[in-house]
Queue: 3 jobs
Job 1
Amino acid sequence: MLTGGAIGIGLPMATGAAVACPDRKVITLQADGSGMYTLQALWTQARENLDCLTVILAYRSYATLHGEMTNVGVKEPCRNARRMLDLEEPYLDWTHLARGMGIGRAHG
């Protein structure tokens, strides 16, 4: 079963939708782990002044990758594997990340 085929696609898809339909607001629900793959889409949204609202779901984990480990038969990942799949340290401050990309109205 393929579960991670769309990792990181939410932010760029929202950007494309906003470019294609500039008269409509685009609302995106994006998990934090997946969003880290394509964070730069926020910069494009700001640069192009696109009407996008992004809601980050802060799971603090690459949750899809946890599922992929299970799919390949890993019952209990070792400490190092678990550490590579979590987003606890350092803390991802999405408000500051968005502001750093030029999103002026970002808030947590």
Job 2
Amino acid sequence: YLDYVNQSIPDKYLPPSLFIHPNDLKKSIVELYENKEKRILLGNSLREFVREKWSRKQVAKNFLDLIKNEYPSDWIQNPKDLPSIHMTCIENEKGIEFLRLYFKKYGKRGFFISDKPEIEAYLINMIEI
């Protein structure tokens, strides 16, 4: 997902972050520890982002905009438009193996996405059944 996050979420909605591969976590922590300027810049950018985008007032306004049906079109995302499917909190290979076993036990009906044939086909192709 690291390689696709900017394709699925517009930059203006992403908090200032370090998007790293889990294998690089230790190296990234050491880098932030050793580079005070980078650490302060990232922290200040994040503080400003939270102040502007996630304040109580802004969050309340966002909910009101949703209720009034007056929200930006880029708030809505069609899963069919996502560049790919990625595992969360599990290594990709382990997730794919889980999906293979799940598919063998429950079949494609077990995915509960028959109303989305393109995504269903993508998933089945991804697990190479």
Job 3
Amino acid sequence: MKEPLTSFNILKEKFADYEHRAQQLEMAEEVYSCLKNKERLLIEAGTGVGKSFSYLVPVILSREKTIISTASIALQ
């Protein structure tokens, strides 16, 4: 499994509008570590932190079966 930082650097190169967020990389590294060590993880973070990439990048790289559960509120 590749390190999350490498993948985020690729996103930065490929997408001009991609914006690096320190919290996003920190979360991705936690997800990566948990996948690698077969541990569970619960993440709670506010709007705009970048949760989607934070969990999707490591999950896709790992090719592990993963459950992601979210609760959303329609923003008006």
